[in-house]
Request: fold
Amino acid sequence: MQREKQALRAKMRQRLRQMDRQERQRQAMAVAAHLRKTGVWQRAACVLLYHALPSEVDTSHLIDAAQKAGKAVLLPVCVSASVMEAARYSARDALSADMRGILAPGGPEIVPPARIDCVIVPGLAFTKEGLRMGRGAGYYDRFLARLSPQAKRIGVCFDQQLVTDLPTEAHDARLDAVVCAMGIFGDAR
Reply:
């Protein structure tokens, strides 16, 4: 199973490297437009987003839209080798690299997972049925397991990241919906 996942991760990284900047921007804008129209997004008062790595869907427009709508915006912060938390973020906050090198609010106010309405989840590969393969550290799988059952888990990706099937294990979290440039798959009502 691990060899299969490693091979797929390498294949997906290669696909992402082949995308040019304009295509990334075009698809990120389409993802944001689709997501903002969903009932999940419109109802959510507290949203966990992420500061995108170069190979991920840019969420800066979603962060801005959430703040303008008065939503509580959270960003992930890795606080140990196995634990990710959600930290409150405002446009005034300085971002600094956490222990994994990912930009996160400095001196963060940690928000309990039970208060989160919606989590926007990155990854390397997704299926239309809500399966997700991340980068292999398991941070999101462990974090998603701590959310309330009412919280919605929404994957966002480029069209090139959709696959028909993924190798999964018992600990791999399933998403409620996946949003890409071509549309919304799953339950994002």
The helical segments are 2-17, 21-36, 39-43, 60-68, 139-144.
